[in-house]
Each structure stands twice: as structure tokens, then as C-alpha cells.
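Objective 1b. Sequence-to-structure analysis of Glucose-6-phosphate 1-dehydrogenase.
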Amino acid sequence: MVSRVIPVDPFDLVIFGGTGDLARRKILPGLYRRFCSGQMEDNSRIIGAARSEHSTEEFRQMVADAIAEFDPKSGTPEMRAEFLERLEYVQVDALGDAGWQDLAALMSPGRVRAFYFSVAPSLFGALAERLHTHGIADDQTRIVVEKPFGHDLASAKALNADLAAHFDESQIYRIDHYLGKETVQNLMAVRFGNMLFEPLWNAQYVDHIQITVAETVGVGGRGEYYDKSGAMRDMVQNHLMQLLCLIAMEPPAKFDHDAVRDEKLKVIRALEQVPLQDVVRGQYLAAGADEPGYLEHVENADSKTESFIAMKLRVSNWRWAGTPIYLRTGKRLKARSSEIAVVFKETPHSIFGADAGRHRNVLTIRLQPNEGMDLFVTIKEPGPGGMRLVDVPLDMTFAEALGPDAEDVPDAYERLIMDVIRGNQTLFMRGDEVEAAWAWADPLIASWEERGDKPVAYESGSTGPEEALALMHRDGRRWREIRA
């Protein structure tokens, strides 16, 4: 199998917050990998912009250090030197006028201009305004905005209004890196490219769906931010919501950005409000002196913010009526794992008798680590002694199935940034989609804040609170094991 690399048109990409952590860890090393793959035209440029004072040479050295730290194996020394030559740096004041004319002078006419807002959301409006005030934005301009896109529905609407005052919706790219993962896109290919699954993808055949995003790390240095956010705002309202939409949506008329996003929006609007008895919230405990608990990390002994959340959702439409979808995400769990499991119903009648046991087909989609898919099917256990059944996986681990080409698959940020340059919004959230997600999340958050319940404690390195297990057990179901 040969991996195809299609170059993009020449572009100028400006990274506001170009000296920040996200730029160093993900954006700039990712762009370097796309350069090494031959996807950038020779005259494309990348411009770092931030309020700190640096020369272009100092910025290039910072990027060289970032590549050495986060992607030391890609390319050759010659490639690295050539990539660094494409970089420029401008000191810019997001809230003032300093540096904007210098930035305008670097823009090349007649090519795609993309501006990545890798900054706090409070600066989105100011940056959008100044790009127009100083004549930098044109009809080929695209802006990329990072989450959190709002703290609630009101703030999301305000952010949308700020951006809409200066840019058309077709120019705004709200990035969610989960949608750039290879397996997430393969989920659409599996659903809509194979006759095998789509006839079974409904409440008649699917017993339930589980979506798990487990992390082994705590909140660490993000304590102040996280304590104002929590797992619901930080993960469920965006990342897990997007995965749910791709699992549950109807087939779009075509693989087009608005057609796909129209179907995702319908799923969000079909979500029922979740009663509090179907929600479990938790906070991780300390694991010895060297691993503080959540309350110590956020330096707030009275915190009522959750580092873990599990819930049961229902989608009120013909396809999914009666089939629950269980979401689970948390910090300091036993393994780092992101997985979607579609659990099919048992056969209506077993011809093999009670001794054969109970068996179900399960399709699992692994997002991280070891991206791939498994389809568990029931077969006869080898050997004499009667008809004993066992469930075995039909395994498609990308690294094994695709061979060396799997190593060349771009990571999420690489793919999404190249989609921005191409003008493809399929894997980006639309403004009404973001607002619909907050409109669903806000009443649930308000209900537990009104009650004032404190999240239950759970052991670091566990699968979460016991109450989360009970959420499934009372329905006669079990969470899948969290494992790397």
C-alpha cells in the first residue's frame, strides 16, 4: 500500500502564540513533518507572532529545539535547515497596534492566508478585529481557533458573534484535534463505506455504545484552569460529543463539510436531558506524597469540580430510541486509553444451550494508543468436548495492517492544519454545532451546581468511582476494561 501525499497550494500561516506550549509541542513539529513529506510548496511560509520580544533567528532556534525534543527522527539535517529558513517572527500586541504593520509587510499577495489563534479565547475578538483594521485579512483568509470555545452557551454565543463581525463562517475553523485522528475518520469509512455495518447500525441490533477517554495524568500545572472547567466542560462538551455525533449521525448525502456537520447537529439536538441519577462525578485521591490528589493540585479543599465523569445518554430519534450511550472520562485512571465500543445485542435464540454461555459481537475503535479496530466474533473453541464458544477479535491494528505506511500517517494537528490550507471544513465544528452542544450541557451543569453535591472520591490508578460501575450494573451491563 502506497501512501499518497498531495501538496497544498502556497500559503502564509501565522501562529499567534507562536512561542507557546501548544505551538512548540504540536503545531510547529507537525508542520515540519508535513514539510518533510513534501506537502508544502517551496515558497510557503510560517510566521510566529507573540507579545514576547524575539528575533527571527531566536525563533528559529526555539523551533529547532522543539523539533529536536518532540520529533527528533523526522527528516534530515538538511531538511531541518531548509524548513527553518521558511520561518519568520513578529512581535505583536494583540490588544494594541504595535507590530501589526510589520506583520502586514510579510504577507504575500494572491495566496492563502491562515491565522492560528493559539491564545486565550479572550483574545480571539481582538485578533480578528486587528487583522481587518490593519488590512491583513482578505477573501482567502482563514482563522483557526482552539478550544475552550466558550465556558457556557452565553460565552460561546459572544465568541461566535465576535468572530462573525469580521469573518464569514466559511473562514472560521474551530479545531478539535480528536476529529483529526486517523481512526475517527476511519469510523466514517467503516460506517458509510461498507454494506456490512450500516444495516445493523441502529437500536434493533445495537444493545448499547460505550465511549471512554481515560488519562493517567492528573491536572498538574493546569489546576487553576481545570478547577473552573472540570471534565464536563474540558472533555464531554467537545471531544466526547464529537465522537458521539460521528457514531450516531445519519449518513450525509455526500462527504461535504456542511452535509456532515448538518447530520452531527441533528444528533446534538436529539439528545435528551440527562437526569442527575444517570451522572457520576468524581475527584481522584492522592497516591502517596509524590502524587497529590485533585484537591491538592487545584489548591482548593472545598472544590466541587469533577476530574471524572460518567453518564448515560439517550438519543431521541428513530435510529437510536431505546439504545443508551454511556460516556466516561477522567484523570488519574489506570491506563491511557480512548475507545469507542459498539456492543451488539445477543442472538435472539441460542441453539447451543446454556453451557455455551452468553456472547455478543463488539466493534471497538481504538483512538489511542495503538490506533485500530477490533470486531469480536463468536467461534467454537478449538478441541474436543462439545460445542464451547469463545469470542475472538478480528484485529486491524493500523501499524500492522498498513506496514511502514502507518508511520507516515499525519497526526491530528498535521492533518487539520493542511485541511485549513485546502479550505476543507469537514473535520471542524460549525458555530451552531458548538452552541447546540452548550445548550445541552448547560442545564445539566446548572442542576448539579444548584444541588451543591461534591464529587465522590476515587483511587488514583483505578477505573474511577464505584458509583460509575453501579451506573452500568443497574442496567445489567458492564464497562469495558480500561487498558493501554
